[in-house]
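User: Sequence recovery, please. Input:
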């Protein structure tokens, strides 16, 4: 099998993807220069998502550690555990974690909708074009 021929065929067939992977840093600089607002909101989203995962995840682990300390390796009666305070704490922490994640996602979607409306973007042919 001729790998040089295969590579040349891929280069000619998928030139844009090949160019993207070859010149990734240059394209990243161009994207940052042309879309600083999107980059800013992406970083804000990552920050808040990290905060949600860090603090809510640590709360979930703390509740689970309390459960392990209380019950240890003994067999847990499922009906007794489902009615216990520890189970309610664990479920409430998990639900709060999911709720915080959804809120952060909705805020980001709202900001993106405002940006699209402000810049009057429309979807055409699967690509976002300025009108």
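Assistant: Recovered sequence (131 residues):
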């Amino acid at each position: 099998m001729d790998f040089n021929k295969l590579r040349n065929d891929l280069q000619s067939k998928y030139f844009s993807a090949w160019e993207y992977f070859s010149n990734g840093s240059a394209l990243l600089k161009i994207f940052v220069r042309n879309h600083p607002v999107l980059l800013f909101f992406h970083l804000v989203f990552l920050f808040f998502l990290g905060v949600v995962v860090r603090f809510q995840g640590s709360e979930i682990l703390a509740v689970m550690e309390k459960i392990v300390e209380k019950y240890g390796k003994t067999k847990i009666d499922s009906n007794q555990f489902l009615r216990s305070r520890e189970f309610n704490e664990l479920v409430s922490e998990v639900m709060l974690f999911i709720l915080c994640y959804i809120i952060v996602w909705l805020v980001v979607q709202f900001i993106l909708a405002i940006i699209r409306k402000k810049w009057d973007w429309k979807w055409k042919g699967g690509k976002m074009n300025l009108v």
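Residues 36-71 form the longest helix (36 residues).
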